[in-house]
Specification:
The chain is mainly beta and about 70 residues long. The chain has a five-stranded antiparallel β-sheet with strand order 1-2-3-4-5, covered by helices on one side. A hairpin with a 4-residue loop joins strand 2 and strand 3. Helix content is about 15%, strand content about 40%. The radius of gyration is 11 Å and the shape is globular.
C-alpha cells in the first residue's frame, strides 16, 4: 500500500479508505477541489480512479509515481 500513500502525497490528496480485501483497497481520493472514488490493486500496484467509462487506470512504481509506457 506504500505506493498508494506516496501517490497521495505527490498529488496532495487525502486517502479515505472504505474497504479492503486480500488483493485490493478502495475508497475515495479527496483533492482540494473534488473527490474521486478509487480502487488500488495491492500486488500489481494498479490504481483505478473514477467509475464507469470515465475511469482511468495508472500503473504506479514503488515510489508512487505513474509509470508511463
Amino acid at each position: 500500500m506504500k505506493p498508494l500513500v506516496l501517490y497521495c502525497r505527490w498529488q496532495d490528496a487525502k486517502l479515505r479508505l472504505f474497504g479492503r480485501s486480500e488483493t485490493a483497497v478502495w475508497g475515495e481520493l479527496a483533492f482540494k477541489d473534488h473527490s474521486e472514488p478509487f480502487q488500488f490493486q495491492l500486488q500489481e500496484w494498479l490504481l483505478t480512479i473514477g467509475e464507469g467509462e470515465g475511469a482511468r487506470t495508472l500503473q504506479l512504481d514503488e515510489m508512487g509515481v505513474e509509470v508511463v509506457e
